[in-house]
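User: Could you check the structure of this?
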Amino acid sequence: MEVLKVSAQSQAKAVAGALAAVIRQQGAAEIQSVGAAAVNQAIKAIAIARGYVAPNGIDLVCIPAFTEIDIDGEERTAIKFIVQPRNSK
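Assistant: Sure, the predicted C-alpha coordinates are below.
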Protein backbone atom coordinates (compact mmCIF):
# COMPACT_ATOMS: atom_id res chain seq x y z
CA MET A 1 0.00 0.00 0.00
CA GLU A 2 1.30 3.42 -0.97
CA VAL A 3 2.17 5.72 1.97
CA LEU A 4 1.63 9.45 1.53
CA LYS A 5 3.32 11.63 4.15
CA VAL A 6 1.57 14.88 4.94
CA SER A 7 3.16 17.82 6.77
CA ALA A 8 1.69 21.05 8.10
CA GLN A 9 2.97 22.79 4.96
CA SER A 10 1.40 20.29 2.54
CA GLN A 11 -1.16 21.72 0.12
CA ALA A 12 -4.42 19.86 0.77
CA LYS A 13 -5.47 20.01 -2.91
CA ALA A 14 -2.14 18.55 -4.05
CA VAL A 15 -2.33 15.73 -1.51
CA ALA A 16 -5.94 15.10 -2.56
CA GLY A 17 -4.89 14.76 -6.20
CA ALA A 18 -2.14 12.32 -5.29
CA LEU A 19 -4.51 10.37 -3.05
CA ALA A 20 -7.18 10.14 -5.75
CA ALA A 21 -4.59 8.88 -8.25
CA VAL A 22 -3.34 6.19 -5.84
CA ILE A 23 -6.91 5.10 -5.04
CA ARG A 24 -7.73 4.77 -8.74
CA GLN A 25 -4.53 2.81 -9.48
CA GLN A 26 -4.07 0.68 -6.35
CA GLY A 27 -7.44 0.74 -4.61
CA ALA A 28 -6.19 1.97 -1.20
CA ALA A 29 -3.62 4.28 0.37
CA GLU A 30 -2.17 5.19 3.75
CA ILE A 31 -1.64 8.78 4.86
CA GLN A 32 0.75 9.53 7.73
CA SER A 33 0.98 12.82 9.61
CA VAL A 34 2.59 14.08 12.81
CA GLY A 35 1.13 17.04 14.68
CA ALA A 36 -2.20 18.81 14.75
CA ALA A 37 -1.58 21.01 11.69
CA ALA A 38 -0.44 18.04 9.60
CA VAL A 39 -3.46 15.99 10.66
CA ASN A 40 -5.68 18.94 9.69
CA GLN A 41 -4.15 19.04 6.20
CA ALA A 42 -4.53 15.27 5.86
CA ILE A 43 -8.23 15.34 6.79
CA LYS A 44 -8.87 18.21 4.37
CA ALA A 45 -7.10 16.26 1.63
CA ILE A 46 -9.24 13.17 2.27
CA ALA A 47 -12.42 15.26 2.09
CA ILE A 48 -11.29 16.87 -1.18
CA ALA A 49 -10.25 13.50 -2.65
CA ARG A 50 -13.73 12.09 -1.92
CA GLY A 51 -15.08 14.74 -4.27
CA TYR A 52 -12.49 13.87 -6.92
CA VAL A 53 -13.35 10.15 -7.04
CA ALA A 54 -17.12 10.33 -6.38
CA PRO A 55 -17.99 10.86 -10.08
CA ASN A 56 -16.33 7.48 -10.74
CA GLY A 57 -18.71 5.80 -8.28
CA ILE A 58 -16.06 5.49 -5.54
CA ASP A 59 -17.16 6.35 -1.98
CA LEU A 60 -14.06 6.76 0.19
CA VAL A 61 -13.83 5.92 3.87
CA CYS A 62 -10.86 6.40 6.19
CA ILE A 63 -9.76 4.37 9.18
CA PRO A 64 -7.62 6.32 11.67
CA ALA A 65 -4.96 4.69 13.87
CA PHE A 66 -1.74 5.47 15.69
CA THR A 67 1.63 4.30 14.39
CA GLU A 68 5.26 4.79 15.37
CA ILE A 69 7.57 6.30 12.74
CA ASP A 70 11.25 7.23 12.70
CA ILE A 71 12.13 10.88 12.02
CA ASP A 72 15.86 11.68 12.01
CA GLY A 73 16.62 8.73 14.31
CA GLU A 74 13.88 9.69 16.77
CA GLU A 75 10.75 7.59 17.19
CA ARG A 76 7.56 9.66 16.96
CA THR A 77 3.89 8.84 17.23
CA ALA A 78 1.97 9.59 14.05
CA ILE A 79 -1.63 9.39 13.03
CA LYS A 80 -2.22 7.17 10.03
CA PHE A 81 -5.33 7.06 7.91
CA ILE A 82 -6.10 4.02 5.78
CA VAL A 83 -8.15 5.38 2.88
CA GLN A 84 -10.11 2.91 0.77
CA PRO A 85 -13.40 2.59 -1.10
CA ARG A 86 -16.47 1.68 0.94
CA ASN A 87 -17.57 -1.91 0.34
CA SER A 88 -20.92 -1.87 -1.38
CA LYS A 89 -23.48 -4.42 -0.21
